[in-house]
Design brief:
Length: 179
């Protein structure tokens, strides 16, 4: 009888341990800790942003939020402009997305991928609002490139519908803030 009671207690103890293991696994599970979700981590940090001449054009703070599922950007320009973006990897469509909104009401919705170590995001074709413009349709493309010295270059370009570079709107070099 004692032997049977011991077996039942042992069995109950093992079942109890399996529940603890399952519960602990659920607490440490990170659905956004995949390699794809980490592709834009090189941009995370607090930055001083300079132009190619070394002039400060703004500050930017990029933080991981929602248990590593998104990056939150908080931009403050040297002339006082502000903007915020939400960046996330869409595991259903296998691409990165950014929704940018600034204090002037400008909105960008970008999609793209990490290409050769560079994050490249584009918006959809837009119709030019200026009458008489030679170029009727265009799109924005922004790329972020991690540099060997730990800085990050951000390049914002505008392209024609056929992919011809029309102009560069911004080239900023992100330098980590010193603590």
């Amino acid at each position: 009888m004692m032997h049977r009671t011991y077996k039942i207690k042992l069995l109950l103890f093992l079942v109890f341990l399996s529940f603890i293991r399952i519960s602990a696994k659920g607490q440490t599970d990170c659905s956004c800790c995949t390699e794809a979700h980490k592709q834009f981590d090189f941009w995370v940090g607090e930055w001083i942003v300079k132009d190619t001449l070394g002039n400060i054009v703004g500050e930017n703070k990029i933080t991981k939020i929602e248990k590593n599922c998104a990056l939150l950007e908080q931009w403050t320009g040297a002339k006082g402009g502000t903007g915020t973006s939400l960046n996330y990897y869409d595991k259903n469509h296998f691409n990165w997305n950014q929704v940018w909104v600034d204090a002037s009401g400008n909105i960008l919705r970008l999609k793209g991928h990490l290409i050769d170590g560079k994050m490249v995001l584009k918006d959809e074709l837009r119709k030019s609002k200026k009458k008489g413009k030679k170029i009727k349709w265009y799109y924005n493309q922004i790329s972020w490139t991690p540099n060997k010295d730990g800085s990050v270059s951000q390049l914002w370009e505008v392209y024609s519908k056929k992919g011809k570079l029309l102009k560069t709107l911004f080239l900023g070099i992100y330098h980590k803030k010193k603590k």
